[in-house]
Amino acid sequence: MARSANCGACSGTDSCGGGGAVNVCGCTSESDAVFCAANGKDCDSFSGVDNCGRSRSASCGSCSGTASCGGGGTANVCGCTAETDAAFCARLGVTCGQKSGTDNCGNPRTATCGAACVGCQAVRQVDPSGGIYYDSTSGSSTLSSSCGGASAPEVVYQWTPEVSGAATVSTCGSNFDTVLDIQNGTCGTGSTLACNDNSAVWCYQSTTHSLIDFSAVAGQTYFFTVDGAGSAQGNVTLKVVSAEGTCGNPFSMPTTGGTKRFAMNGGNSNVGSCGGGGTDRVVHWVAPKSGSATVSMSGDFWPAALYVRSGSCGGGSELGCNAQTAQWPTETITFNVSAGSDYYIWAANSSYTGDAVMYFDLTITPPP
Question: Residue 161: is its pLDDT beyond 90?
Answer without folding.
Answer: yes
